[in-house]
Write a structure and sequence with these properties.
This protein is of the alpha+beta class and about 575 residues long. The chain has 16 helices and 20 strands. The strands form four sheets. A six-stranded antiparallel β-sheet has the order 7-8-9-10-4-11, with helices on both faces. Strands 1-6-5-2-3 form a five-stranded mixed β-sheet, with no helix packed on it. It has a five-stranded mixed β-sheet with strand order 18-17-16-19-20. Strand 7 and strand 8 form a beta hairpin. The longest helix has 25 residues. The N and C termini lie far apart (about 75 Å).
Length: about 575
């Protein structure tokens, strides 16, 4: 990786970057605990050195919907997910096109002589870098190109169009193999563990440094994973415990069945119309009196939301609108969301297997928090690989700007994989227009998911069903032309007429009471909130799981009744 040290070049065109040592605590991927780690990088920022960027710097990263889709497919296909971590990944890639040198600091010179046993490096000398190095602007792109070349050219995998870090391959012996990569962390999913280990060895054959074998993965990209005999659970208890302990809110009290935000209209009016202090001095005084940074708290909540906590969606999106100048009421509401998360920190999204996998641990099944008989009214899943969704929208719920709030959710294997709560950018002049605009967002999300599934060979033959409770908007989506009362709607919204005509999506009728995406558009009462989240977070077992269980019990009872005759 390093060339022979040499006196510092005098040529102004040669790039010399400072060496940077970073000391941090990082979760060990094998032990799942904090360990001290030091890392040597270069500082390629614009404030330091004369780094010249010749090639592209963009490197693909996995989106959270694709991450959840991966775990949903692992459950739906009854796969197992194994993890690997590439140590010192960036150094595996070739160097940038423009050569550069590193100005060695004291720590590096001590490591060079004491640990490696090399001759000492005189002060003022530099080291030529022969490989890629973290910190260089082109570093992430070089690693991305390097590992993609290995996966595609050497191992025969393909990448999906909309998720470049989602790899797939089909073989006659092993069937479908899926890989999800987040920089240097991998999830390898296949029907058998032996197949996963074979793929790991193939990747290891193209690496200079040994890989960290994580086994049946328990944590990936800051997300906690539980792979059991009956389901796969995605949650973020570790993250929530850390941030709540940091703020000192672990002793706060709450109701038996807490909700992230109050739903009564009087409270919502106070929250939406509250004005924060105008002067910077008063803003700082309010922040000090509340004991935490509002903007930082909203960022921490957004991370939990994007991982798996769909239940705080409307609360976070509502509160994030006041990050510029929050009032005391906004601080109190944000703290209430943290208290709710602390008391429900073990909650996550469940994806159900069609049948038990005997080589994984058998754990307790999740229980619904509401009456199971009430959940029978909602959408159910007969096939774990079929995508189904729902969308809803409020009308002019924002009291300041009279804009509408829309929410969409899509589910596979009994749990949510794609969800979104969005304050619509324009003011809708009718509830039909607000619902229609939200249906466009739902249609785009459906096409995104269909594209990935079709590419990996899980074809969605029938149109993707999306529940919508507004009759006018549903009729408009199938009318194939604007009606007299909706000509004012932006013409770009009418693309869904083409999607429905091509039978790629289908907006189905559902009563407002049974539309479980309603809790993504506004704070709902306690009963409805838990009913909807039992559905979206997968706490209710889908019908295909119940059918498989009933069939297994039938076989068992039949075998028991015939056993005397079989062995007689």
């Amino acid at each position: 990786m390093f060339g022979e040290p040499c006196p510092r070049p005098l040529d102004d065109e040669v790039v010399v970057l400072p060496w940077v040592w970073s000391y941090l605590y990082k979760i060990d991927p094998v032990l799942i605990e904090d360990v001290a780690k030091s890392r040597g990088t270069c500082n390629g920022g614009p404030r330091h050195g004369k780094v010249i960027t010749i090639a592209e710097t963009y490197a693909a990263c996995v989106e959270q919907p694709a991450h959840r889709l991966m775990w949903a497919l692992i459950a739906a296909l009854n796969f197992v997910g194994l993890g690997i971590d590439v140590g010192n990944a960036f150094a595996e890639a070739p160097p940038p096109k423009d050569p550069f040198f590193m100005q060695a600091d004291t720590q590096f010179r001590e490591w060079w002589t004491q640990c490696l046993g090399n001759p000492p490096i005189p002060a003022g000398w530099v080291i030529p870098i022969l490989k890629n190095l973290q910190g260089h602007p082109e570093g992430p792109r070089l690693w991305d190109n390097h590992i993609r070349g290995i996966m595609v050219k050497n191992l025969g995998f393909k990448t999906t169009t909309h998720e470049q870090c989602f790899y797939y391959k089909r073989t006659q012996t092993d069937g479908l193999i899926l890989i999800l990569r987040q920089v240097d962390d991998f999830i390898i999913a296949a029907k058998s563990m032996q197949t996963c280990q074979t793929i790991r060895k193939e990747i290891q054959g193209h690496m200079a440094n040994p890989l960290n074998d994580l086994g049946i993965i328990k944590r990936f990209n800051g997300v906690d994973i539980v792979q059991t005999r009956h389901y796969v659970k995605v949650h973020c208890e570790t993250y929530l415990a850390r941030i709540c302990e940091h703020h000192g809110w672990t002793n706060e009290k709450c109701a038996n069945k807490p909700v992230p935000m109050k739903s009564d209209s009087a409270y919502q009016a106070i929250l939406q119309l509250a004005e924060g202090p105008e002067s910077m001095k008063e803003q700082h005084q309010l922040e000090e009196s509340m004991g935490f940074s509002y903007r930082q708290a909203i960022g921490e909540l957004i991370f939990a939301l994007t991982i798996c906590r769909i239940d705080i969606s409307i609360a976070v999106i509502t509160l994030s609108q006041y990050s510029e100048n929050p009032a005391k009421e906004h601080y109190q509401a944000a703290k209430a969301v943290f208290v709710y998360l602390w008391h429900t920190r073990e909650d996550g999204i469940y994806y159900w297997r069609p049948e038990p996998r005997e080589d994984l641990p058998d754990t307790a099944l999740p229980e619904t928090t509401t009456d199971p008989s009430r959940l029978k009214m909602f959408l159910d899943f007969e096939n774990p690989l079929i995508t189904k969704g729902a969308g809803d929208s409020t009308w002019a719920s924002d009291r300041k700007h009279r804009r509408s709030m829309g929410g969409i959710v899509f589910m596979i294997a009994g749990g949510a994989i794609y969800y979104r709560t969005r304050l619509q950018p324009t003011v809708a002049q009718s509830s039909t227009e607000a619902e229609f605009c939200n249906m466009v967002d739902a249609g785009k999300a459906a096409l995104y998911l269909r594209s990935i599934l079709d590419e990996i060979g899980i074809e969605q033959i029938l149109p993707t069903e999306i529940l919508a409770d507004n009759k006018g908007a549903r009729q408009l989506s199938n009318a194939r032309q604007p009606t007299r009362r909706t000509r004012h709607v932006d013409m770009k919204q009418f693309v869904i007429l083409q999607w429905t005509e091509e039978e790629r999506i289908d907006y189905s009728e559902v009563s407002t009471h049974n539309n479980f995406s309603d809790s993504l558009t506004k704070p709902t009462g306690r009963v409805k909130f838990y009913e909807h989240n039992d559905i979206m977070m997968g706490r209710r077992r889908p019908i295909y799981v119940k059918a498989a269980h009933a069939f297994k019990m039938l076989l068992s009872s039949t075998y028991s009744s015939l056993k005397p005759f079989i062995f007689s």
